Amino acid sequence: EDLDETARTTLLTLLGEAQIRAGTPGLALKTLDDPLLREFSPAHLWRSYSLVKMGRYRDAIGELKKIDRMNMRENADLQTGKLLLALGNTKDARPKLTPLLKSKDTSIQKEATLQLISVALSQNQLDEATSLLEESSPANPVEESLIRYLDGRLQLAKGDRLSAVGTFQTLINDPEIRK
Description:
By secondary structure, the chain is an all-alpha fold. The protein has helices at about 5-20, 25-30, 40-55, 55-65, 70-85, 90-95, 105-120, 125-135, 140-155, 160-175. Helices cover about 70% and strands about 0% of the residues.
């Protein structure tokens, strides 16, 4: 018996996701280009991941713009901000990321904060970077190391070279990082 449209849409999206996770983004893109998935927000998200893996960042941003489900919008904006940063476009990334600081989803909030700290450092906005770093509270050793790294970059930017050396030396010797 044939699958109904909803089941087929769900299965095609899951197949595309599995193909991306298996390292075959080209194949996933073909799967996710099925006409049934043209207006399906989860498929747009996975198409964007495929395009990123293929180095097509601008096309990935285009896919993320098509997401219209409210519960997926913040994640799409986060991914768009990160892609804009990867393209060196901090000017357009900042307005995508800044509203996410107020997200109810703490993981999105934390990721946006970390990205914005990096933006502030790259634009030599040290007061903003300091403020965002002070508001950061790591939830696990990986986040703690990343915040320490950003703090080291801030110390370096402020000219506090000895503190930066100590911070980076601590990170190099951190057993959590070497796992």
